Protein backbone atom coordinates (compact mmCIF):
# COMPACT_ATOMS: atom_id res chain seq x y z
CA UNK A 1 0.00 0.00 0.00
CA UNK A 2 1.44 3.35 -1.02
CA UNK A 3 1.93 5.76 1.87
CA UNK A 4 0.63 9.28 1.48
CA UNK A 5 3.29 11.99 1.42
CA UNK A 6 3.52 13.12 5.04
CA UNK A 7 4.99 16.45 4.03
CA UNK A 8 1.79 17.28 2.15
CA UNK A 9 -0.25 16.55 5.25
CA UNK A 10 2.11 18.65 7.37
CA UNK A 11 1.76 21.57 4.94
CA UNK A 12 -2.04 21.25 5.06
CA UNK A 13 -2.02 21.21 8.86
CA UNK A 14 0.47 24.08 9.21
CA UNK A 15 -1.42 26.26 6.74
CA UNK A 16 -4.62 25.54 8.63
CA UNK A 17 -2.95 26.62 11.90
CA UNK A 18 -2.23 30.00 10.33
CA UNK A 19 -5.84 30.35 9.16
CA UNK A 20 -7.15 29.50 12.63
CA UNK A 21 -4.74 31.89 14.36
CA UNK A 22 -5.76 34.76 12.11
CA UNK A 23 -9.51 34.11 12.32
CA UNK A 24 -11.70 36.50 14.28
CA UNK A 25 -14.40 34.31 15.78
CA UNK A 26 -17.91 35.65 16.32
CA UNK A 27 -19.46 33.90 19.35
CA UNK A 28 -22.43 31.73 18.50
CA UNK A 29 -25.19 30.01 20.45
CA UNK A 30 -23.58 26.56 20.40
CA UNK A 31 -21.88 24.82 23.30
CA UNK A 32 -19.60 21.79 23.26
CA UNK A 33 -18.78 19.34 26.02
CA UNK A 34 -14.95 19.26 26.24
CA UNK A 35 -15.07 15.51 26.92
CA UNK A 36 -17.20 14.65 23.88
CA UNK A 37 -16.57 13.97 20.20
CA UNK A 38 -18.71 15.80 17.67
CA UNK A 39 -19.98 15.55 14.11
CA UNK A 40 -21.20 18.93 12.84
CA UNK A 41 -23.44 18.98 9.77
CA UNK A 42 -25.24 21.76 7.96
CA UNK A 43 -25.55 23.97 4.92
CA UNK A 44 -22.35 24.93 3.12
CA UNK A 45 -20.82 28.11 4.62
CA UNK A 46 -23.18 28.07 7.61
CA UNK A 47 -20.20 28.32 9.97
CA UNK A 48 -19.24 24.72 10.79
CA UNK A 49 -15.52 25.23 10.18
CA UNK A 50 -15.50 28.46 12.16
CA UNK A 51 -16.91 26.60 15.15
CA UNK A 52 -14.01 24.16 14.84
CA UNK A 53 -11.63 27.14 14.73
CA UNK A 54 -13.17 28.35 17.98
CA UNK A 55 -12.66 24.95 19.61
CA UNK A 56 -9.02 24.92 18.43
CA UNK A 57 -8.43 28.48 19.69
CA UNK A 58 -9.92 27.55 23.06
CA UNK A 59 -7.61 24.55 23.31
CA UNK A 60 -4.61 26.83 22.73
CA UNK A 61 -5.87 29.23 25.42
CA UNK A 62 -6.08 26.25 27.78
CA UNK A 63 -2.38 25.60 27.29
CA UNK A 64 -2.39 23.05 24.49
CA UNK A 65 0.28 23.46 21.80
CA UNK A 66 -0.36 24.02 18.11
CA UNK A 67 1.42 20.74 17.37
CA UNK A 68 -1.49 18.97 19.09
CA UNK A 69 -4.04 20.54 16.71
CA UNK A 70 -4.25 18.09 13.80
CA UNK A 71 -6.65 19.93 11.52
CA UNK A 72 -7.22 18.46 8.05
CA UNK A 73 -9.52 20.25 5.60
CA UNK A 74 -10.59 17.78 2.94
CA UNK A 75 -11.55 20.56 0.53
CA UNK A 76 -7.84 21.38 0.23
CA UNK A 77 -6.89 20.49 -3.35
CA UNK A 78 -3.61 18.99 -2.14
CA UNK A 79 -5.67 16.10 -0.73
CA UNK A 80 -7.33 15.21 -4.03
CA UNK A 81 -7.34 11.43 -4.32
CA UNK A 82 -7.35 10.91 -0.54
CA UNK A 83 -8.80 7.48 0.25
CA UNK A 84 -9.90 5.50 3.28
CA UNK A 85 -6.52 3.81 3.61
CA UNK A 86 -4.81 7.21 3.82
CA UNK A 87 -6.45 8.08 7.15
CA UNK A 88 -3.77 6.15 9.02
CA UNK A 89 -1.24 8.65 7.73
CA UNK A 90 -3.02 11.38 9.70
CA UNK A 91 -2.25 9.50 12.91
CA UNK A 92 1.31 8.87 11.76
CA UNK A 93 1.81 12.59 11.09
CA UNK A 94 0.26 13.43 14.46
CA UNK A 95 2.81 11.20 16.19
CA UNK A 96 5.59 12.92 14.25
CA UNK A 97 4.36 16.38 15.27
CA UNK A 98 3.71 15.78 18.97
CA UNK A 99 4.26 13.28 21.75
CA UNK A 100 1.27 14.75 23.58
CA UNK A 101 -2.43 14.04 23.13
CA UNK A 102 -3.49 15.12 19.61
CA UNK A 103 -6.86 16.69 18.87
CA UNK A 104 -8.18 15.52 15.51
CA UNK A 105 -10.22 17.86 13.29
CA UNK A 106 -11.60 16.43 10.03
CA UNK A 107 -13.28 19.21 8.06
CA UNK A 108 -15.71 18.46 5.16
CA UNK A 109 -14.92 14.76 5.34
CA UNK A 110 -18.11 13.57 3.59
CA UNK A 111 -16.42 12.95 0.24
CA UNK A 112 -14.14 10.23 1.64
CA UNK A 113 -16.00 6.94 1.46
CA UNK A 114 -15.79 5.00 4.69
CA UNK A 115 -14.73 7.96 6.83
CA UNK A 116 -17.00 6.77 9.63
CA UNK A 117 -14.88 3.64 10.12
CA UNK A 118 -11.86 5.80 10.87
CA UNK A 119 -13.97 8.11 13.04
CA UNK A 120 -15.12 5.17 15.15
CA UNK A 121 -11.56 3.92 15.55
CA UNK A 122 -10.46 7.39 16.67
CA UNK A 123 -13.17 7.44 19.33
CA UNK A 124 -12.41 3.88 20.43
CA UNK A 125 -8.75 4.89 20.76
CA UNK A 126 -9.78 7.84 22.97
CA UNK A 127 -8.72 10.57 20.52
CA UNK A 128 -10.76 13.75 20.97
CA UNK A 129 -12.27 14.22 17.50
CA UNK A 130 -14.30 16.89 15.70
CA UNK A 131 -15.79 16.29 12.26
CA UNK A 132 -17.79 18.44 9.82
CA UNK A 133 -19.76 17.66 6.69
CA UNK A 134 -22.21 19.38 4.34
CA UNK A 135 -24.47 16.48 3.55
CA UNK A 136 -26.99 14.65 5.73
CA UNK A 137 -26.28 11.43 3.79
CA UNK A 138 -23.12 11.15 5.85
CA UNK A 139 -25.47 10.46 8.77
CA UNK A 140 -27.44 7.64 7.20
CA UNK A 141 -28.54 4.95 9.62
CA UNK A 142 -25.59 2.78 8.60
CA UNK A 143 -23.13 5.54 9.39
CA UNK A 144 -24.79 6.39 12.70
CA UNK A 145 -24.78 2.69 13.58
CA UNK A 146 -21.04 2.54 12.96
CA UNK A 147 -20.41 5.66 15.02
CA UNK A 148 -22.54 4.24 17.83
CA UNK A 149 -22.85 6.52 20.85
CA UNK A 150 -19.30 7.76 20.43
CA UNK A 151 -20.21 11.12 18.82
CA UNK A 152 -22.65 13.90 19.52
CA UNK A 153 -24.26 15.13 16.32
CA UNK A 154 -25.13 18.83 15.91
CA UNK A 155 -26.80 20.56 12.98
CA UNK A 156 -25.25 23.99 12.42
CA UNK A 157 -27.53 26.63 10.92
CA UNK A 158 -26.82 30.06 9.44
CA UNK A 159 -26.92 32.92 11.94
CA UNK A 160 -30.14 33.49 13.80
CA UNK A 161 -31.10 37.15 14.26
CA UNK A 162 -29.39 37.48 17.63
CA UNK A 163 -26.15 36.09 16.20
CA UNK A 164 -26.56 38.35 13.17
CA UNK A 165 -26.77 41.43 15.43
CA UNK A 166 -23.83 40.22 17.49
CA UNK A 167 -21.72 39.74 14.36
CA UNK A 168 -22.53 43.33 13.36
CA UNK A 169 -21.65 44.49 16.89
CA UNK A 170 -25.15 45.85 17.49
CA UNK A 171 -26.02 45.77 21.16
CA UNK A 172 -29.55 45.77 22.49
CA UNK A 173 -31.46 45.11 25.69
CA UNK A 174 -35.06 45.28 26.89
CA UNK A 175 -34.96 49.08 26.96
CA UNK A 176 -33.92 49.23 23.30
CA UNK A 177 -37.56 48.69 22.32
CA UNK A 178 -38.45 51.97 24.06
CA UNK A 179 -35.53 53.97 22.66
CA UNK A 180 -36.68 55.43 19.34
CA UNK A 181 -33.26 55.31 17.68
CA UNK A 182 -32.35 51.85 18.99
CA UNK A 183 -35.76 50.44 18.12
CA UNK A 184 -35.51 51.87 14.60
CA UNK A 185 -32.09 50.30 14.18
CA UNK A 186 -33.39 46.88 15.20
CA UNK A 187 -36.27 47.18 12.73
CA UNK A 188 -33.86 48.14 9.94
CA UNK A 189 -31.54 45.24 10.74
CA UNK A 190 -34.43 42.79 10.70
CA UNK A 191 -35.17 43.83 7.10
CA UNK A 192 -31.50 43.41 6.22
CA UNK A 193 -31.67 39.93 7.74
CA UNK A 194 -34.94 39.23 5.91
CA UNK A 195 -33.37 40.12 2.58
CA UNK A 196 -29.82 38.79 2.87
CA UNK A 197 -30.16 35.87 5.26
CA UNK A 198 -27.75 34.59 7.87
CA UNK A 199 -24.79 32.99 6.11
CA UNK A 200 -21.91 34.49 8.14
CA UNK A 201 -19.75 35.63 5.23
CA UNK A 202 -22.55 37.73 3.73
CA UNK A 203 -21.47 40.37 6.27
CA UNK A 204 -18.00 40.54 4.75
CA UNK A 205 -18.86 41.29 1.13
CA UNK A 206 -20.22 44.53 -0.27
CA UNK A 207 -21.93 42.68 -3.13
CA UNK A 208 -23.81 40.14 -1.08
CA UNK A 209 -25.95 38.93 -3.97
CA UNK A 210 -22.87 37.89 -5.96
CA UNK A 211 -21.53 36.04 -2.93
CA UNK A 212 -24.83 34.25 -2.35
CA UNK A 213 -25.07 33.37 -6.03
CA UNK A 214 -21.59 31.81 -5.90
CA UNK A 215 -22.51 29.78 -2.81
CA UNK A 216 -25.74 28.59 -4.41
CA UNK A 217 -23.89 27.52 -7.54
CA UNK A 218 -21.43 25.51 -5.42
CA UNK A 219 -24.33 23.85 -3.62
CA UNK A 220 -26.23 23.23 -6.86
CA UNK A 221 -23.41 21.85 -8.99
CA UNK A 222 -21.08 20.47 -6.34
CA UNK A 223 -23.17 19.30 -3.40
CA UNK A 224 -26.20 18.29 -5.44
CA UNK A 225 -25.77 17.62 -9.17
CA UNK A 226 -22.23 16.20 -9.18
CA UNK A 227 -22.40 14.35 -5.86
CA UNK A 228 -25.69 12.65 -6.75
CA UNK A 229 -24.88 12.05 -10.42
CA UNK A 230 -28.03 13.87 -11.51
CA UNK A 231 -28.56 13.17 -15.19
CA UNK A 232 -31.07 15.95 -15.81
CA UNK A 233 -29.52 19.04 -14.19
CA UNK A 234 -31.94 21.41 -15.96
CA UNK A 235 -34.93 19.64 -14.43
CA UNK A 236 -33.28 19.76 -11.05
CA UNK A 237 -32.58 23.48 -11.36
CA UNK A 238 -36.18 24.13 -12.41
CA UNK A 239 -37.44 22.13 -9.43
CA UNK A 240 -35.56 24.35 -6.99
CA UNK A 241 -36.90 27.44 -8.78
CA UNK A 242 -40.44 26.10 -8.62
CA UNK A 243 -40.19 25.35 -4.91
CA UNK A 244 -39.04 28.93 -4.31
CA UNK A 245 -42.18 30.16 -6.05
CA UNK A 246 -44.49 27.89 -4.05
CA UNK A 247 -43.33 28.77 -0.53
CA UNK A 248 -46.37 29.57 1.64
CA UNK A 249 -48.30 26.74 -0.04
CA UNK A 250 -48.45 22.98 0.38
CA UNK A 251 -47.61 21.23 -2.86
CA UNK A 252 -47.64 17.62 -4.01
CA UNK A 253 -44.88 15.75 -5.78
CA UNK A 254 -47.21 15.22 -8.74
CA UNK A 255 -47.88 18.95 -9.06
CA UNK A 256 -44.14 19.66 -9.07
CA UNK A 257 -43.58 16.89 -11.61
CA UNK A 258 -46.23 18.32 -13.96
CA UNK A 259 -44.92 21.88 -13.56
CA UNK A 260 -41.37 20.90 -14.51
CA UNK A 261 -42.54 18.70 -17.36
CA UNK A 262 -44.56 21.54 -18.86
CA UNK A 263 -41.46 23.74 -19.00
CA UNK A 264 -38.99 21.14 -20.25
CA UNK A 265 -41.48 19.42 -22.58
CA UNK A 266 -40.26 16.13 -21.18
CA UNK A 267 -41.76 13.85 -18.57
CA UNK A 268 -40.20 13.77 -15.12
CA UNK A 269 -41.58 11.13 -12.78
CA UNK A 270 -42.83 11.80 -9.28
CA UNK A 271 -40.19 9.34 -8.02
CA UNK A 272 -37.52 11.50 -9.60
CA UNK A 273 -39.00 14.62 -7.99
CA UNK A 274 -38.99 12.85 -4.63
CA UNK A 275 -35.34 11.90 -5.08
CA UNK A 276 -34.35 15.41 -6.14
CA UNK A 277 -36.07 16.95 -3.12
CA UNK A 278 -34.35 14.48 -0.79
CA UNK A 279 -31.00 15.48 -2.30
CA UNK A 280 -31.76 19.14 -1.62
CA UNK A 281 -32.77 18.34 1.94
CA UNK A 282 -29.64 16.21 2.41
CA UNK A 283 -27.56 19.24 1.41
CA UNK A 284 -29.50 21.33 3.97
CA UNK A 285 -30.69 23.66 1.20
CA UNK A 286 -34.36 22.91 1.94
CA UNK A 287 -36.43 21.66 4.84
CA UNK A 288 -40.10 20.78 4.98
CA UNK A 289 -42.99 21.35 7.37
CA UNK A 290 -45.73 18.73 7.41
CA UNK A 291 -49.48 19.05 7.91
CA UNK A 292 -50.39 18.19 11.49
CA UNK A 293 -53.90 16.98 10.69
CA UNK A 294 -53.22 14.97 7.54
CA UNK A 295 -53.00 11.24 7.30
CA UNK A 296 -49.47 9.90 7.47
CA UNK A 297 -49.11 9.42 3.72
CA UNK A 298 -50.37 12.94 3.09
CA UNK A 299 -47.95 14.39 5.63
CA UNK A 300 -45.15 13.08 3.47
CA UNK A 301 -46.61 13.93 0.07
CA UNK A 302 -47.99 17.44 0.62
CA UNK A 303 -45.58 19.34 2.84
CA UNK A 304 -44.61 22.98 2.66
CA UNK A 305 -41.02 23.53 1.63
CA UNK A 306 -38.76 26.29 2.90
CA UNK A 307 -35.21 27.39 2.17
CA UNK A 308 -32.65 27.16 4.97
CA UNK A 309 -31.41 30.68 4.24
CA UNK A 310 -33.35 33.75 3.12
CA UNK A 311 -30.41 35.15 1.18
CA UNK A 312 -30.36 32.12 -1.10
CA UNK A 313 -34.15 32.18 -1.45
CA UNK A 314 -34.01 35.86 -2.44
CA UNK A 315 -31.97 34.89 -5.52
CA UNK A 316 -35.17 33.43 -7.00
CA UNK A 317 -37.58 36.18 -6.04
CA UNK A 318 -38.32 39.73 -7.11
CA UNK A 319 -40.40 41.95 -4.81
CA UNK A 320 -41.73 38.98 -2.85
CA UNK A 321 -41.26 40.21 0.70
CA UNK A 322 -44.31 38.27 1.92
CA UNK A 323 -42.65 35.01 0.88
CA UNK A 324 -39.38 36.04 2.51
CA UNK A 325 -41.24 36.88 5.72
CA UNK A 326 -42.91 33.47 5.99
CA UNK A 327 -39.68 31.70 5.07
CA UNK A 328 -37.78 33.57 7.79
CA UNK A 329 -40.41 32.72 10.41
CA UNK A 330 -40.17 29.08 9.29
CA UNK A 331 -36.37 29.18 9.67
CA UNK A 332 -36.57 30.67 13.16
CA UNK A 333 -39.07 28.04 14.29
CA UNK A 334 -37.27 25.13 12.63
CA UNK A 335 -33.90 26.08 14.10
CA UNK A 336 -35.45 25.99 17.56
CA UNK A 337 -38.04 23.22 17.37
CA UNK A 338 -37.03 21.07 14.38
CA UNK A 339 -39.59 18.49 13.30
CA UNK A 340 -42.02 19.64 16.00
CA UNK A 341 -43.05 22.51 13.71
CA UNK A 342 -46.14 21.84 11.58
CA UNK A 343 -48.66 23.68 9.49
CA UNK A 344 -52.32 22.87 10.01
CA UNK A 345 -54.79 22.65 7.15
CA UNK A 346 -58.07 20.77 7.43
CA UNK A 347 -60.57 20.35 4.62
CA UNK A 348 -63.10 19.18 7.19
CA UNK A 349 -62.93 22.14 9.58
CA UNK A 350 -61.63 24.67 7.01
CA UNK A 351 -58.96 25.72 9.51
CA UNK A 352 -55.74 26.92 7.87
CA UNK A 353 -52.81 27.81 10.15
CA UNK A 354 -49.36 28.71 8.86
CA UNK A 355 -47.41 27.22 11.79
CA UNK A 356 -48.62 25.01 14.60
CA UNK A 357 -46.44 23.97 17.54
CA UNK A 358 -48.47 21.47 19.55
CA UNK A 359 -45.86 20.98 22.26
CA UNK A 360 -45.75 24.75 22.85
CA UNK A 361 -49.56 25.13 22.55
CA UNK A 362 -48.90 27.81 19.94
CA UNK A 363 -50.45 28.76 16.61
CA UNK A 364 -48.81 31.34 14.35
CA UNK A 365 -50.08 33.16 11.30
CA UNK A 366 -47.75 35.17 9.04
CA UNK A 367 -48.86 38.13 6.95
CA UNK A 368 -46.75 41.00 5.69
CA UNK A 369 -49.44 43.56 6.46
CA UNK A 370 -52.51 42.80 8.54
CA UNK A 371 -54.91 44.82 6.40
CA UNK A 372 -58.66 44.49 5.96
CA UNK A 373 -58.27 41.91 3.20
CA UNK A 374 -56.08 39.60 5.30
CA UNK A 375 -57.64 40.25 8.69
CA UNK A 376 -60.48 37.75 8.33
CA UNK A 377 -58.30 34.90 7.13
CA UNK A 378 -55.60 35.33 9.74
CA UNK A 379 -57.74 36.09 12.78
CA UNK A 380 -60.74 33.90 12.02
CA UNK A 381 -58.54 30.84 11.51
CA UNK A 382 -56.90 31.39 14.89
CA UNK A 383 -60.30 31.79 16.53
CA UNK A 384 -61.63 28.61 14.91
CA UNK A 385 -58.56 26.68 16.04
CA UNK A 386 -58.85 27.96 19.60
CA UNK A 387 -62.54 27.01 19.70
CA UNK A 388 -61.68 23.49 18.55
CA UNK A 389 -58.80 23.14 21.03
CA UNK A 390 -59.00 25.20 24.20
CA UNK A 391 -55.57 23.92 25.30
CA UNK A 392 -53.88 26.22 22.79
CA UNK A 393 -52.47 29.10 24.81
CA UNK A 394 -50.64 31.32 22.34
CA UNK A 395 -52.23 32.90 19.27
CA UNK A 396 -49.76 34.98 17.29
CA UNK A 397 -49.70 36.92 14.03
CA UNK A 398 -46.24 37.88 12.76
CA UNK A 399 -46.15 40.94 10.47
CA UNK A 400 -43.44 43.05 8.92
CA UNK A 401 -43.93 46.01 11.29
CA UNK A 402 -47.34 46.06 12.95
CA UNK A 403 -47.80 45.51 16.68
CA UNK A 404 -51.01 45.33 18.64
CA UNK A 405 -53.09 43.10 20.89
CA UNK A 406 -56.46 41.88 19.63
CA UNK A 407 -59.08 40.89 22.19
CA UNK A 408 -61.77 38.93 20.37
CA UNK A 409 -65.48 38.76 21.17
CA UNK A 410 -64.91 35.17 22.29
CA UNK A 411 -62.54 36.35 25.00
CA UNK A 412 -59.36 35.23 23.22
CA UNK A 413 -56.16 37.29 23.06
CA UNK A 414 -54.19 37.43 19.82
CA UNK A 415 -50.79 39.07 19.75
CA UNK A 416 -49.74 40.86 16.56
CA UNK A 417 -45.94 40.95 16.61
CA UNK A 418 -43.48 42.72 14.28
CA UNK A 419 -40.78 40.55 12.75
CA UNK A 420 -37.86 41.94 14.76
CA UNK A 421 -39.56 41.32 18.11
CA UNK A 422 -40.61 37.84 17.07
CA UNK A 423 -37.01 37.00 16.15
CA UNK A 424 -35.62 38.38 19.41
CA UNK A 425 -38.19 37.00 21.84
CA UNK A 426 -37.10 33.54 22.96
CA UNK A 427 -40.08 33.06 25.20
CA UNK A 428 -42.87 33.79 22.71
CA UNK A 429 -44.30 30.34 23.24
CA UNK A 430 -45.05 30.81 26.95
From TrEMBL:
Superkingdom of origin organism: Bacteria
Matching entries from SUPFAM superfamilies are given as: P-loop containing nucleoside triphosphate hydrolases
Residue span(s) of domain AAA+ ATPase: 34-201
Q: What name appears for this protein in its UniProt entry?
A: AAA+ superfamily ATPase
Annotated source species: Lactobacillus kalixensis DSM 16043
Amino acid sequence: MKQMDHNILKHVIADQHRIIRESEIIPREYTFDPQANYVLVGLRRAGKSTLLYKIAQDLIKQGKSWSQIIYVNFEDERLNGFKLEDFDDILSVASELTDQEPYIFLDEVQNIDGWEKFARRLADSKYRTYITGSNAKMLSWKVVERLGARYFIKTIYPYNFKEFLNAKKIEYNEMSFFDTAADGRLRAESFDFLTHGGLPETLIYSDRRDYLESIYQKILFGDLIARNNIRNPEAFRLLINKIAETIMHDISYRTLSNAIGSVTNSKISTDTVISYIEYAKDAFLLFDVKNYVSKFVERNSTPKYYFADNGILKLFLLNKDAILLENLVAIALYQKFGDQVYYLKSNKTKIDIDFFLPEQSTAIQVTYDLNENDYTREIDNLIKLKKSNEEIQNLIVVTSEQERTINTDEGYTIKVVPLYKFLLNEDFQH
